[in-house]
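Pipeline run #58 for the internal structure catalog. This entry was flagged by the ingest filter as a single-chain record with no existing model, so it goes straight to prediction. Upstream metadata was stripped on purpose; only the residue string is passed forward. Reviewer on rotation: M.T. Logging verbosity set to normal.
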Amino acid sequence: MTAPQLPRSIADVLRNPRHLPREVLAGVVTTLALVPEVISFAVVAGVDPMTALVASVVLVLAMSFLGGRPGVITAAAGSVALVVAPLTREHGTEYLLPTIFLAGIIQVLFGVAGLARLMRYVPRSVMLGFVNALGVLIFMAQVPHLLHGGGIGVILFAVTIVIVLLLPRITKVVPAPLVAIVVVTAVVMIWQLQVPNVADEGRIGGGLPGFTPLEVPLNLETLRLILPTAISVALVGLMESLLTAKLVDDITETHSKKGRESWGLGIANMLSAVYGGTGGCAMIGQTVLNVKTSGGRTRVSTFAAGVFLLGLITALSEVMGQIPMVSLAAVMMVVAVTTVDWHSVHPRTLLRMPFPETLVMVVTIAVVVATSNLAYGVLAGVLLAMVLFARRIAHVISVTRVETESDEPGAAPGAESAAAPGAESMVRYRVRGPLFFASSNDLVEHFSYAEDPSHVVIDLSQAQIWDASTVAALDAIETHYAKHGATVSIEGLDEHSTKFHGRLTGRLGGA
């Protein structure tokens, strides 16, 4: 029996209205899990919780129309909060408006310039580390809510877990997390149980704050102050959003528009800065909850999340405030466990994988957990992967020396000489493999300058010149031979290498 086909677009939902309840309920569940994290991150950033909630409404609604990856939940995220916290702490929240607005401009330029394609250079081992570290961070963030819930909280936590895990075996019409949250909240309200709830995390309700007033001068001094933070916000937000989009691509087995996701995020941040006062990026845990756990696939789910969040903070704030934190923690812990790629950390997989791949994954996880910043972990993982790759490929090249008695440069290696007596001897070096800075720096050591005859041929028909370091190395080899009265001929270059070598040879300074 084949699984039911999930919608991939709004058109699919409109053609088959049976998909609409699932999409809307997925957005509702996601919103309930979104609120406490946004409030917590607002405290970290040093802004009013209501400010972060309103900004999240703007972000999620804007990205529902502008984003390049349907299903991704964008809101006031923790990574952005960590970046702006030093600025707000030292100079005040009034600098958030120009900082986030400038970060949005940078993100728009990033997307328009097509730089989102750089995500293709993120190795699979870094992606696995990113996903596994995400699961660890989500899980760890929920532990305090469980510990502060007391004995009653533990019972409510267990009830939530049971409903989330068992209900899908009975029916999938309604998302299990939503049923669990509603049931546990009803129990708490009916029996008036005293457990920490969403209202304890910060002020909710009281009306919308309106447009953010500009309270700092727009001059070079302000630009100097906010530029470093704006760049950090832009890059961290882009990294998390693009990696989240890639994760959803893998879950749904569909493709997203990374460039659109980039400039869409920029516009959304500019709007949230003007109306709300802070910025954000993709909320990875909530996105996984929306797409993987609740089955949201289209922009309908994210739009529903934005509308429901707006309703919660305006009309239903008192009801939302009664939701027990242990219930939301239980839902997010299930999300955390399902987020981890358990196959990647299975002992058999680790023993089978090359050690450098495993090392990159472990370092990515370690840096993320240590800093609580996914962007730092990804950056560390990518840099380590680059170094290990360069080190590994540097040893791929081989140089074979063949001495002949032929005056024909193209004579086959090992062929018996048919030249007349007194023919000039020749040495041919056959180079195999990619030549770039890591491999070509040692290339000069493979030649016997003092022992070789006056004619040397370097055959590069099975090699490629990738950078200026290789051209400089070849120039240095010719210089060394010239000191011994020998001439060097370079043969076998492909079209690209010929043009590259011809443009740079002899123009790179002394060897």
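catalog note: Residues 407-422 have pLDDT under 50 and may be disordered.
catalog note: The radius of gyration is 30 Å.
status: ready for reviewer M.T.
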